[in-house]
Write a structure and sequence with these properties.
The chain is mainly β. It is built from 2 helices and 10 strands, in the order ααββββββββββ. The strands form 2 sheets. A 6-stranded antiparallel β-sheet has the order 1-2-3-10-5-8. It has a 4-stranded antiparallel β-sheet with strand order 4-9-6-7, with no helix packed on it. The N and C termini lie far apart (about 35 Å).
Length: about 130
């Protein structure tokens, strides 16, 4: 088995253990992400946040849009399940299970979840708004 096959197999195992969105909305240790209209579009779950870096698991329903934004932190995105497009530096990236994307500090980025998606985000240092 190749190293990539091993990683994808592990992602499959992780995906089957993730809670359903309806159940996670009741979890007090989650952070809702809202759009400009005040609608909840995603929910983040803290895996680690000590200020020096943060790791969160984020669920996005199909059609969830993240408007272009930027911040001072370095950020990595790993797609655990689902598909999405992210626009970064004027280029559109189509991401699916197992894909990873790096968002440098100060660079605008945004996108849309094409399907229900679970993602893993790492921010160095911890970005404002990440769950604790």
């Amino acid at each position: 088995m190749t190293q990539m096959s091993e990683h994808l197999k592990r992602l499959d195992e992780i995906t089957h253990t993730l809670p359903q969105f309806a159940e996670t909305c009741q979890d007090p240790h989650t952070v809702p992400y809202v759009n400009h209209e005040g609608e909840e579009v995603a929910r983040g779950f803290c895996l680690w946040n000590d200020g020096s870096y943060a790791v969160q698991r984020l669920f996005m329903e199909a059609g969830t849009e993240f408007e272009q934004h930027h911040h001072d932190e370095r950020e990595w995105l790993l797609v655990i399940s689902g598909e999405m497009t992210i626009e970064l530096r004027g280029e559109t990236h189509h991401l699916k299970r197992g894909d990873m994307l790096y968002c440098p500090p100060g660079v605008p980025h945004g996108g849309v979840s094409l399907t229900d998606s679970w993602t893993l985000w790492v921010s160095i240092p911890s970005a404002e708004g990440y769950p604790k």
